[in-house]
Amino acid sequence: MTMGWALVEYFARVLPPEVREPVLGDMLEADESAWRALRGLFGLVVLRQTEDWRSWRPWLAGFGVALPSSFMLMGVSLSVSWSYMRLLCPDMLAQASLTKPSAMVVLLWQALLLIGWSWTGGFVVGSVSKRTLWASTVLCYAPCIVCLSQFHAESMSRLCLFLFLLPAVWGAHRGFQISRMKFTSALLIAVALTVMIVPTWSSARIQTLSPQNILMNWALSIPAWYLVFTAWKRRHEPQVEHAA
Amino acid sequence: MLGEFEYLLITAAAGLSDDAYGAAIREAIETHTGEKCSIGAIYTTIDRLETKGLLKTWMGEATAQRGGRAKRMVRVTPKGVQAASDFYNVVTSVSRGVAWATKRAGSTT
Predict the structure, then answer these.
(1) Any chain A CB within 8 A of the CB of B13?
(2) Whole-number Cα distances in Å, A239 to A55, A242, B53, B88
(3) What secondary structure does DSSP assign to A92-116, as a single string?
(4) A108/B contact by beta carbon, under 8 A
(5) Residue B29: per-residue pLDDT
(6) Which residues of chain B are within 8 Å of residue A44 when distances are taken between CB atoms?
(7) Whole-Å CA distances, A174 to A14, A111, A168, A207
C-alpha cells in the first residue's frame, strides 16, 4: 500500500463501515489515484453533511436540545451542588429553615431530576441525528467552555457546573445505539419526571422557584415527552405499513 | 418529482439489473452523459433515494479486484420504477413539439 492510499484509508475512517467499505472498493476497482480518491472522499463527506443539514433533525438535536439544555442543565447542576453544600453546613441549613432529612430529600429530588433531564436530553440528541452528533456535541460543550471561563465561586469547584455531562453522555450513547425507546419505558420516565417537577413549584419547602424556573423545568421535560411521542409513533408504524 | 441526477441513477441501476452497484452505476452514468461523476454524488444520491424508498441496497460480495471490499448492491423498488416512469413521461410530454425533440424523432424514423 502506498503512502497516499494509507492516507485515503485513514481519512475514510470518518465514514461509517457500511459506507466506507463499498466506497473504497469502488475506488480501487476504478483504479483511481490516491489524490483523486482523497478528493472524492472529501467530496463525499461534505455532500453527506450538506444532505444531513437539509433535514430538520440536526437543527432540532443541536439548536433545539443540545445548546439550550446545556445552559439550563448547568444551572440545575449548580443547584444540586448548592443543595449538597447546604447539607454539609449546619448554618446554611438553619438559614434555609430546613432539617437535615428534608435537605437530603431536596438533594435526592434535584439529583434525580438532573439525571433524568440530562439522560433524556442526551438520548434525544443521540437518536435524532446520528450523523451530525459531532455538531450537537460542539453545541453542547460550547456553553460549558463559556461558563467555565465566567464562573468564579470560591466555595465551589468549577466542575460543579458539569454534573449533567455524565448522564447526558450516557443518554446520548444509548440514543445512538438503540434510536428509540419502548413506549412503556418512555412513558414511565416522562411521567416520573413531570410528577417530580410538580412539588418543586408547588412547595416552598422543596425550592422557591421563579416563573422562569418553572418554565425551565417544563422545557427540560420536553425531550422526555418527545421520546414518548416517537415511541408511540413507532408502535403505530407497522400497522400503517401492513394497511398500505 | 425526481431530480435529473436521481432519474439518471435510477435508470442506470435499472439497466444494470442484478449487476447494479456503486462503481457500475457511476461508469454507466459517465458513459451516457460523457461527464465525470463524483463518488460523493453517487453515494449521497443512493442514500437519499433509499430513504425515499425508491431504491433498496444491501452489501454484496467482495472481490480481489476491490481489495477484498464488499460492493453495495442496488435494486430499484416498484416505487422507484413508478417515480422514474413519471419523470420520463413528464420529460417526453413537455418536450413534444420542441425543435430538438422533433429533429430527434425525425432522425430515428
Answers:
(1) no
(2) 26, 5, 18, 33
(3) HHHHTT--HHHHHHHHHHHHHHHHH
(4) no
(5) 96
(6) 38-40, 43-44
(7) 21, 20, 10, 31
Q: What is the pLDDT of residues A54-107, one digit of tens each?
A: 899 999 999 999 999 999 999 999 989 988 988 888 888 888 777 888 888 889
Contact B13, B74 (CB under 8 A): yes
Chain B residues with CB under 8 Å of A40 CB are 38-40
pTM of the model: 0.76
* A74-100 exposure pattern, b = at least 16 Cβ within 10 A, e = fewer: bebbbbbbbbbebbeeeeebeeeebee
pLDDT bucket at A243, cuts 50 / 70 / 90: very low
Report residue A175's pLDDT band, with 50, 70 and 90 as the boundaries: very high
DSSP state of A161: G
Give the span between the Cα atoms of B36 and B29, in whole angstroms: 9
Run of H or E including B27: helix B22-33
Phi and psi at residue B75, to the nearest 5° = -135, 140
Q: Do A21 and B69 touch (CB under 8 A)?
A: yes
- Compute the nearest-CA separation of A223 from chain B (Å): 25
Tell me which of B71 and A149 has the higher pLDDT.
Answer: B71
SS3 A222: helix
Secondary structure letter of residue A75 according to DSSP: H
Instruction: For residue B17, give the C-alpha cell.
Output: 439489473
By Cβ distance, the residue of B21, B27, B44 closest to A51 is B44
B46 Cβ neighbours under 8 A, 6+ residues apart:
B9, B22, B25, B55, B57, B72, B74
